[in-house]
Amino acid sequence: MEPIKGISIEKYAELCAKMSDVFNDQESCLKIAKQEGITKENWNAAHEGWQFRMTDPSDMGKTASQFDSLWQAAMDK
Question: Percent of the chain beyond pLDDT 70?
């Protein structure tokens, strides 16, 4: 699966796990992304892109399923 703005689905899932307590607070999410060396522009583009891929009916849930597995593994750490 092709990364979005250099952010693979694995990295996206890891970041989402780190952001799980503050996911509705965009500024806090951006701080976490910045700590990981990701710019605001790249985070916003990757977040929007991965969300689109996960909800795209033509994908038939493949991306969402992979993300869920990766996110759960990251949450378990």
Answer: 100
